[in-house]
Amino acid sequence: MTSAAVNSRDLPHPARAEIRLEGVLHALSDPLRLRIVRELAAVGDELSCSHFDLPVTKSTTTHHFRVLRESGVIQQNYRGTAKLNGLRKDDLDGLFPGLLDALLGAAAREADRLGGA
Prior knowledge:
A hairpin with a 2-residue loop joins β2 (74-79) and β3 (82-87). Residues 1-7 have low confidence and may be disordered. This protein has helices spanning 21-28, 31-43, 58-71, 89-95, 99-114; strands at 47-48, 74-79, 82-87. It has one domain (20-105): Orthogonal Bundle (Arc Repressor Mutant, subunit A), CATH 1.10.10.10. The protein is built from five helices and three strands. The protein is mostly helical. α1 (21-28) packs antiparallel against α3 (58-71). This is Transcription regulator ArsR.
């Protein structure tokens, strides 16, 4: 992956050049991970992990965030005791122009079609 964590609070992230399409598509293929990304995109800013009310255990939530981070979809940083999550939109748009917007648009249309979510 990328640079090793400097201390126990630094989380490893792939460098932009290391982000792969198949990893991004895998990360976004899960409905809960897509939900996280949709919320981050809608807010356009960083959100703490505790902001997300997911219907799974804390360990499963941690797993979903790790998959998103390790695929290069989100950036996670500690600020005090909070772990903040931000969408790596600039990196994803630079590598795969239009992909994120197309996926988010399709997800919104599907949510409307299925009656929410």
